[in-house]
Amino acid sequence: MATTGRGKGGGKGKGRGGRRPVICANCHEGGHFAYDCPKRPDTANGDNTADDGPSAPCIWCEEMHWSYACPVAAQRRSQGVCLKCGDPNHWVKACPKYREGAQRPDTPNVWCMRCGTTKHSTSRCTAESGAPIHMPTENDDIHVCLWCGIAGHDFSECFRRVPSQTKEHATKITELEKHINAEIAPLKKAVENISGIKDQLGTLTDRVAALETWRTASAPHLDEMKKQTASFQDMLQDFPQWKKKVEATQKAQKTKFDSFLDTQWKPMNAQFQELLTEWQRPEKRQRSDDLYDLLLNSEEERDVELDDERNNAVAIKMSTSSGSRDPPETPKRQDRKKLRTDANKIRGPDRDPWLDIPPGDAAWTEELMDALMGDWQPAYHDRLLKWLRVHSTSEMVETVESLATAETTRIRDSGLKQVLKGARVSPMVFSNRPRQQ
After folding, report:
1. What are the record keywords, sorted (predicted)?
2. Is 226 in contact with 216 (CB distance < 8 Å)?
3. N or C: which end of the chain has fewer CB within 10 A?
């Protein structure tokens, strides 16, 4: 019998390199491979004729026939192995478990590796054959099981491949979800808060730059605010990428985000949380909000005070008609006075509270003017002028300066009334009891 073993050994029964013996899968004898077997009918010749039958049972079914001609092996080669249940007698499309699963609705934890959708698995994808396969990138940071196509675990952890791991896998998923929710909840809140501060600072920066110099020259804390804004804007350069990562992590359930929560993103998470904590310190937040309201008259502040202004206007009109100079102290009015007292402690004792009153609805100016016709005082001119320097334009300031020397009747009936309409002055500016400095 000729031997065709290859390698340094070169002897009978030695394999490649002499490391292990070579056994023919056809005749079960050593010294040659199956494709060199002299007992195969297609390799028989005049010098080496084939035997009448096999000398050993088939390695597939243990029957007495050649292994290469085994019908069981031929059936397995034609049908393959099911990737759903592991049965070698059918393909995955013919799997009864697959048919059962096909009747269930699609779930968001399924991910298709062909088209990238989460509405179906790869085996149920209807994309054209040969279409480019969508693979996750580093930014996706998604772990998808190559066995079942579901995100959240790897091939080695798949409970569909090894049913005994079902309970353990479910426990891991539950722990992972708790970990994600616990880590992401404060980060998501930080994103919302920082987004609001970012929008406020962007508006503040743009509007302050457009204001006249004479309006910003006497604004308190403006230089400090500009420094804080500049430092905050520098740190916000990485904010969009960080925000996108936080939101993606929050949406992806049953997905491993350990690399985001624990490694490369951990310093940035701490950085933005520390930034938010520093920015929200009471003294800094109070000073920044005061400046913002003072320079821009934020719509939010106006909406909050609208009801208070209307109540005070009605109270002023009622007290004037009844002959009393003291309007009733409503709860909202008392709360407002307390807020102004607290604000003055921060701004300083020399600051006129009138300067902090925002413009109100122009419709209330008409009603207020009717209530004040018989109670106008010259001391109102100076305070009105100060208020307009903060809240109005230079043209209105010049108009009031010219009206300050005019007769009382002219002020009441013409010029001042038009100025008030144009400036949308709040009724609280002209309280029946002017507060002295």
Report:
1. Metal-binding, Zinc, Zinc-finger
2. no
3. C
Tokens found for residue 65? 């026939």
Cα gap 110→148, rounded to integer Å: 9
Q: What is residue 30's three-state secondary structure? A: strand
Residue 1, token pair as written in the block: 């019998």
Query: Mapping DSSP to helix (H, G, I), strand (E, B) and coil, where does residue 88 land?
Result: coil
CA-to-CA separations, 58 to 27, 28, 32, in angstroms, rounded: 9, 9, 17
| 219 Ramachandran zone, left/alpha/beta (phi>0; psi -120 to 50) | beta
What's the rounded Cα separation, in Å, for the pair 70 and 72?
5
Q: Read off φ and ψ for residue 280, nearest 5 degrees.
A: -90, 10
**Residue 298 pLDDT > 50, yes or no?**
no
- Distances from the Cα of 137 to the Cα of 245, 266, 371, 418, angstroms: 14, 20, 70, 64
Residue in this structure with the two tokens 């740190």, named with its chain if needed: 235
Neighbours of 160 (CB within 10 A): 20
Give the chain's radius of gyration (CA, Å): 42
Tens digits of residue pLDDT in 204-253: 666 666 655 655 665 555 666 666 666 666 666 667 766 776 666 655 54
| DSSP code per residue over 229-249 | HHHHHHHGGGHHHHHHHHHHH
Torsional sign, CA 290, 295, 301, 302: positive
- Residue keyed to tokens 């209530």: 371
For the chain, domain boundaries: 1-79, 167-287, 330-430
How far is Cα 18 from Cα 20, in angstroms, rounded to an integer?
Answer: 6
* CA 93 to each of CA 110, 127, 239: distance values in angstroms, whole numbers, following the listed order: 18, 16, 46
